[in-house]
Amino acid sequence: MSPPNTRESGLESSAVTFTATDTRFGAGVSKTVGDLLEREGITNPLVVTDEGIEAAGLLEPLLEELDDDVSIRYATTEPSTTDFESVSNGEFDGVVAVGGGSVIDTAKVTSILLAHGGDASDYLGVDAVPGSVAPLVAIPTTSGTGSQATQTAVLTHDGVKRGISDESLRPAHALVDPELTADLPPRQTARSGFDAFVHALESLTARDHRWIESRPITYQGANPASRALAREALSQVHGALERATFDGDDRDAREAMSVGSHLAGTAFSISGLGIVHALASTLGGLTDDPHGACLAASIEAGLTYNLPVRREEYADIARSLEIANVAATDDEAAEALVDECDRLRRSLNLPTSMRALGLERSDVDTIVENTLLQERRLPTNPRGAGDDLREHLLEVEFDG
């Protein structure tokens, strides 16, 4: 992909820090969790999961690898800052997360409170964690959020999706086992997989790292390392998501989704994301719809908002995914990418507009106001977001 085609103000540094979670990948690796904890000297772990994981029979084989008296904490579907009142400082010496993004994010916040106490809301924002946290082993059961590879946790505070971003939150270890996703229902496969797709796409087109105006921030902007990871992630997910959704027994597709999701998470943990995720986080806080559904509802508005400054990059992506002819103009190829994202969300039976989530024209001011509060997302969006976002949303989502 070519360098940014606009002069993004604020050139400060070309240095990039590349940190990644220690990861084991492959069928059956989740059952090595007991050996891993023993090797790390973790003798009293707290297991964080959810009732759906337990009911699906995914938890029991892993508990067999741990001590009989292990403690379990159940996460909510959409974690909130009010969910952690019972967590006591120093009660456990490690955390094992078994589940999707909400579970892993809950485990991350739990690891903070075990080490430092206080309330979850004390740590909202960037670099607010005062030191190391209880070690976390993440075992994802979906292929979407990539939370096992990132330094952030998303949770709702006062009705707004917010985040905690700190390098200490990156899990110490991840056991990425495609077998744990084999029975994931089509709807969850589609929603979580669309998240991975947008992670890769926004990471690949994020603001270049040489033009980030304010440092330190959690994310560094797109750079050669993040782009390489995101490009491969996008290829894997785009080629496998529909297959995994409509034929859950396709082991190759499940494996590709696990690989792509993890690579996408690693990529955006370096580069950051953008306006699509900022909008989706806002919609999730307003409607309580799942994150993947909110991303699907936001992607057209987000991509077209950035189109004036990422036309060439969108065109390159469309050609690499073979959804645009190599002879197509940049305008044609970029439009083909926007069309493909719309086709994909329709194929997966995901929402195709903000109206589909029950939002109306009268909600636009609130959507814009809350989106502009997304301090983790907007610094790495390739186009600065401001008041013009309101007019854009009205045109694309409500008045078109």
TrEMBL record:
The Alcohol dehydrogenase iron-type/glycerol dehydrogenase GldA domain, residue ranges: 21-178
Residue intervals passing through the bilayer: none
Domain Fe-containing alcohol dehydrogenase-like C-terminal: 189-386
UniProt keyword annotation of Cell membrane present: no
Keywords of this entry: Oxidoreductase
GO molecular function term, any single one: metal ion binding
Protein name as it appears in the record: Hydroxyacid-oxoacid transhydrogenase
Source organism per UniProt: Natronorubrum daqingense
